[in-house]
């Protein structure tokens, strides 16, 4: 039997061996060319192509795909960043969560020189969505907006003039009188809030004012504009123009409704133009487009703003390289390449000059996209957007329950939620 | 922790040098396990208790603020909390009741069948082998308005049309969720019941038959009383399981149409809204509810877990 001192020596030797093995495992791979991890939202290969094009001798950009749902993207990124995960270098960030990330200190600051360049090249709405407390915090990469898509055959049959601005009220009436549907996004998800925000903005209102004050922001959904928005939803939900799946409708199901025999009108993002090319060429030929519908007749419609901004993580080990990569990714040419492959349109007018886009889209549609982006209404930029959006959903969903009391109820509820007095 | 207390009697005895050294060695040997247990179970639980006293958001850590029991009062006075608790109880009661009946029938079949025993048992158990998320998606597609077959199959019912949106209102959505839950976990129930069924002595059944008892009399007077412990264990396990329902709701409705359960509410606070304080408070409340439920079932039905294992 071993003596006590022998046992001790053995134990010390074992511990040393273990530590040596651990240290060896930690070292290594420091001399090789660094790989920058770019967390992207799923698309049809646009960001992959840009990542390849922007990889240089100094670094390689590798893409990591996030979940499809914007809420899940936010959850994954925020939880990793809250734990100071250094494996994220670049991120594709959806506009409603930009402020939250910036406020939490997750985003590396953008140099003034580059910020100035971005400000001069990007659309106004893109800059508004990417700014927090007066500073540009992400680089606008692509900007999306919704337009009103219609079936030409239906419009001819119904005899409505689409060359002039139309209102929601008009659309719903025409569609229900002629056996058509008005497809929207009204499932319990961010897309429904996008619609509500567009309706309220279109009536000259807003959901939140002084959003930078965070919890003390002024909730302004309880206003005549909020009531106008509720009226549109109530009217559609109570009419025969309502799609059967209204309360669970998303961008995808709306495009199915629009492509069906009852399809007439739909508000949806830019990708719709090439959506039916392969699945239903007859529908593809029948698509017309116009400016987003007006909430109130005679008042400029404010179409939704969507898109992606590129942010550099402040926990990255390669902030300098990632910033260089960000400059490359958001250059107008690369915005064009991404748009060509995905249908997600550039965040800058210069991006629209990318020649292949002119072959893929008719010039008046490209002009409509740009015009829509000029007047688009981004969702309120606040670090509490997640709470506000969920609170709106729990009071405005399902669309069939919306009435003239809804704006007031939701305003009270949002305030309670922000103060921590109500469960969300 | 149990290993640490087990070591104590040894030291309590009159000690020789050798036994003292052995007990010291024993303490050293179990220490890593005890520390690990404390780290992975006790620490998170205490941390949750501690966090539940704060208003704390993951993305605004600077605004963390001590609020005492405020989170608990907010939760307990909020109608959403009680609504979700009610939903959870409805799902639990309905699914366990239905599963008990179907599961018992399946257990009888598995017990009595002579031909193709393996095939029959396997086919009854298949749903339990499927991951809950996968089964939830399968059922969501089945009930879906756009690509489901349920509307087509049930079109002979007067209130079902091709346009029936199952996830469009509260009760149909709850029906779909409960149906999926029942389909998925009935095999588990029948497995537990089968174990109980095989403990019923054949001699007693034969004696009853000789005494002229009918099939129903044998079921009610012999089989069920002898299976009581097994039935209660099955109900206890499934009730606790069903009370924590999450996956089906997450996949099928994401909590829309007021179909949220208590677990889902907790998930949303912690994971979706990063409200670590409120979320921890809800976790604690959920834990207490499960504890009360387990205690209630054990007391109410006088479940003897030892008896269920055949140790009586």
CATH superfamily of the largest domain in chain A: Periplasmic binding protein-like II
Over the alpha carbons, how many angstroms does the gyration radius of chain B reach?
25 Å
**Beta fraction of chain A:** 5-15%
Number of helices of chain B: 15
Q: What fold name stands as the CATH topology of the largest domain in chain A? A: D-Maltodextrin-Binding Protein, domain 2
What can you see in these coordinates?
The complex is a heterodimer of chains A (424) and B (312). Chain A has 424 residues and is an alpha/beta fold. Chain A has helices at residues 4-26, 46-54, 70-82, 98-103, 112-121, 124-129, 152-158, 168-177, 190-202, 224-237, 251-259, 281-286, 319-329, 332-342, 355-360, 363-375, 385-396, 406-419; strands at residues 35-40, 60-65, 90-93, 131-132, 135-136, 139-151, 181-183, 208-209, 218-219, 263-269, 287-290, 305-312. Chain A has 2 domains: 35-144 and 306-375, Periplasmic binding protein-like II (D-Maltodextrin-Binding Protein, domain 2, 3-Layer(aba) Sandwich), CATH 3.40.190.10; 147-302 and 383-419, Periplasmic binding protein-like II (D-Maltodextrin-Binding Protein, domain 2, 3-Layer(aba) Sandwich), CATH 3.40.190. The relative contact order of chain A is 0.17. Chain B is mainly α. Chain B has a two-stranded antiparallel sheet with strand order 1-2. The interface between A and B is medium-sized, with 31 and 33 residues.
What's the SSE blueprint?
The complex is a heterodimer of chains A (424) and B (312).
Chain A: H1 4-26, E1 35-40, H2 46-54, E2 60-65, H3 70-82, E3 90-93, H4 98-103, H5 112-121, H6 124-129, E4 131-132, E5 135-136, E6 139-151, H7 152-158, H8 168-177, E7 181-183, H9 190-202, E8 208-209, E9 218-219, H10 224-237, H11 251-259, E10 263-269, H12 281-286, E11 287-290, E12 305-312, H13 319-329, H14 332-342, H15 355-360, H16 363-375, H17 385-396, H18 406-419
Parallel strand pairs in A: 1-2, 1-3, 7-10
Antiparallel strand pairs in A: 3-12, 4-5, 6-10, 6-11, 6-12, 8-9
Helix pairs in contact in A: 2-14, 9-10, 17-18
Chain B: H1 2-6, H2 8-12, H3 17-51, E1 54-55, E2 65-66, H4 70-76, H5 79-112, H6 117-129, H7 132-143, H8 150-153, H9 170-197, H10 202-210, H11 215-243, H12 247-252, H13 262-272, H14 276-300, H15 305-308
Antiparallel strand pairs in B: 1-2
Helix pairs in contact in B: 3-14, 5-9, 5-11, 6-9, 7-9, 9-11, 10-11, 11-14, 13-14
InterPro entries (chain A): SBP
Pfam family, one (chain A): SBP_bac_1
GO biological process, one term (chain A): maltodextrin transmembrane transport
